[in-house]
């Protein structure tokens, strides 16, 4: 939570973006575009917005409440988010306790919402205060995202029944791509020698990916709500890296990598790079879509763990 930008910082950033828009005369379709009459679907974070956009095609206007790069677990919705949400026809959340802020947020609104992880078999968190609770990062297995796509197609069919067949067809097409990216994931990570298959990250966000790829997962903290690593957590990771001769460690784009750099200094392991989980990058960045996110993470992990 302490790494989350303060409300003041966010207000300041919002002001900057408004100014930037004014300066560039940006004509991108936004919520304020009166010419766009499509029903608005809001998602809680950018990864879901991209997946939903694939299922919706051009029939719905899909937008994310949190922006690229945002910390999504402990997000504090702004008055502008609430105003935007009151105009929405549907809100999609991940569920599995991902969005700590969401229950209160939707309780204040008269807008239907759908939980896209419904039907996914959760992996439980093994450590910390969250022990035994479902790990929320189910989208880190593309196979689970097939279920997300089906759930979205169903929710969209209720919202716009005239386009139900198109949503189903879009979901099927996207599921093919999910299967392909899953094969790439298991294929590339499966080639790593057994003794190099240890994935050390900041947040425990890779349980599903590690399960699919046969990696041993080790992290500094279980869920980002407590993203300041304790000395015990850092010491534990250092011991693990030394004992297993782990060649590289990683950290995610939405949190500070400072605690992991301490592990790097203490062990001589390389910093293997930034992994994306809780957010896509901006459009021009390395992971503008969910499929890019999986490809990028797989490539980064393989490069880091290959000696
Ligand atoms: Zn997370």
Question: Topology, please?
Answer:
Blueprint: H1 7-24, E1 40-43, H2 46-56, E2 61-64, H3 79-87, E3 90-93, H4 102-107, E4 113-115, H5 142-159, H6 164-190, E5 198-203, H7 207-213, E6 216-221, H8 231-244, E7 248-252, H9 258-267, E8 270-275, H10 290-305
Parallel strand pairs: 1-2, 1-3, 3-4, 5-6, 7-8
Bound molecules: zinc ion.
Give a summary of the structure in a few sentences.
The protein is of the alpha/beta class. The chain is built from ten helices and eight strands.
What does this structure look like?
The protein is an alpha/beta fold. It folds into 2 domains: 32-177, Rossmann fold (3-Layer(aba) Sandwich); 185-305, Nitrogenase molybdenum iron protein domain (Rossmann fold), CATH 3.40.50.1980. Helices cover 44% and strands 12% of the residues. A 4-stranded parallel beta sheet has the order 2-1-3-4, with helices on one face. A two-stranded parallel ribbon has the order 5-6. It has a two-stranded parallel ribbon with strand order 7-8. The longest helix has 27 residues, at 164-190. Residues 73, 137, 203, 205, 224, 277-278 line the site of zinc ion.
